[in-house]
Write a structure and sequence with these properties.
By secondary structure, the chain is of the alpha/beta class. The protein has 2 domains: about 20-235, Spore Coat Polysaccharide Biosynthesis Protein SpsA, Chain A (Alpha-Beta Complex), CATH 3.90.550.10; about 240-390. About 55% of the residues lie in helices and about 10% in strands. The protein contains 13 helices and 9 strands. It has a 7-stranded mixed sheet with strand order 3-2-1-4-6-5-7, sandwiched between helices. A two-stranded antiparallel ribbon has the order 8-9. β8 (about 265-270) and β9 form a beta hairpin. The two termini are about 35 Å apart.
Length: about 400
């Protein structure tokens, strides 16, 4: 399932008389808290001589949250399309500060931490993440979240080599001028993961700061299983090598091994591999080749869509052209057709009796199917590569 795309990333220009800090607070039915959040943000900014603005992004509240926030002095941004990511994307577009501090409206985070985040941005950081895991107050985080958050953060770090211990903390700060590099698009809670992934891919200076997590006030909007799945889904979508190519290579290698055992008449543990094993191996080879094709297309699309750096793919496009893939595909199809043709010729020669060459027939069919996949995957890669080259040419002439 694809990640929902809300809008393309806007261009962020330097603004005259812009405040240094924009505090962006997403809000969905937080009428009981939002005035205290706005007051706390302004108090902290004033106490630390930080020029700033407070933006409350009303995400379709029906309890009067927007009016309460406006009365407290906040600039209210209306975003009727619900979703954590949708709210922040709207807030980012409206923010005028050089630094953007993200913080929730449920009073789980200390607004007094804002100057510490700003200080790290002043020192050169481009994204500063809060880390709650050592500062969770009693009752502030469920057992499920205490287990699930480290697991998801660890999986994200494994896939993308990110340097954070709490990838889903809701308090963080980012330089406004790096937002175009992040090209954020997720509309739900998975925006938290997307920001970390995109920052890592862009090579940004990402730092963490330990913070406390307090029990929330008001009704929680989180759904652990649904939101956890959205995070996991996004991680997989952003890593086509892990999602497609790794299982594809494993599947193809295992299938090829099984087929080789059948043709070599090798027995293992007293078991002789027969035609049923050959069929299973053929299916694994076909699935594996398809998954590798999906992985190559996914990696190429990521380079085109997000401008990701992929040295391996660059070498692939420099050394292997469309014609190479077409010739390989045609070669495999030709080999398979030849095998099948020989079987049919032998069948006709023996008076159209029973077909005794099941193993060769399966091999021929496998070669034809894989060859067709290679042939058309080559065209798809060429098409994506063409779009990528067009984008690069436009950037050079801009």
């Amino acid at each position: 399932m694809a990640v929902t795309v809300r809008r393309s990333a806007p261009a962020f220009e330097a603004l005259e008389d812009a405040p240094l800090v924009s505090v962006v607070i997403p809000c969905l039915n937080e009428a009981g808290n939002i005035d205290r959040c706005v007051a706390a943000a302004y108090r902290v900014l004033a106490a630390n001589s930080l020029t700033g603005e407070v933006l409350v992004v009303d995400n379709g509240s029906d309890d009067g949250s927007a009016a309460v926030a406006r009365a407290a002095g906040a600039t209210v941004v209306d975003e009727p399309r619900r979703g954590y990511g949708s709210a922040y994307l709207a807030g980012f577009e409206a923010a005028r500060g050089d630094y953007i501090v993200m913080i929730d409206a449920d009073l789980t985070y200390d607004f007094d931490e804002i100057p510490n985040f700003v200080r790290q941005l002043d020192e050169g950081a481009e994204l500063v993440m809060g880390n709650r895991m050592q500062g969770v107050k009693p009752g502030a985080m469920s057992i499920l979240s205490r287990i699930g958050n480290p697991l998801l953060s660890g999986f994200l770090n494994l896939l993308f080599r990110t340097p954070v211990g709490d990838a889903h903390c809701g308090m963080r700060a980012v330089r406004r001028d790096v937002l175009p590099l992040l090209a954020l698009q997720a509309t739900g809670m998975e925006l938290a993961s997307e920001m970390v992934i995109r920052a890592s891919k862009a090579g940004l200076d990402v730092r963490e700061r330990p913070i406390a997590l307090h029990p929330r006030e008001g009704e929680s909007k989180l759904s652990p299983f649904r939101d956890g799945w959205r995070h996991l889904r996004l991680m997989l979508v952003y890593n086509p090598s892990f999602l497609f190519m790794l299982p594809g290579v494993i599947s193809g290698a295992l299938g090829s091994l099984l087929m080789a055992l059948v043709f070599a008449h090798i027995s293992l543990f007293g078991h002789t591999f027969l035609v049923h094993t050959l069929i299973g191996g053929s299916l694994l080879v076909v699935v594996g080749s398809q998954l590798v094709g999906f992985g190559l297309c996914g990696r190429s699309y990521a380079v085109h869509q997000f401008g990701d750096s992929d040295p391996w793919l660059d070498r692939y496009f420099r050394r292997i052209r469309l014609e190479h893939g077409l010739l390989l595909g045609l070669g495999l199809v030709g080999g398979g057709v030849t095998v099948v043709a020989l079987i049919v010729a032998h069948w006709i020669d023996t008076g159209l009796g029973s077909l005794a060459e099941e193993r060769a027939a399966i091999l021929g069919a496998t070669l034809v199917i894989v060859g067709v996949q290679v042939f058309f995957t080559s065209f798809m890669l060429s098409l994506i590569g063409l779009r990528r080259r067009q984008s690069e040419n436009l950037r050079r002439t801009a």
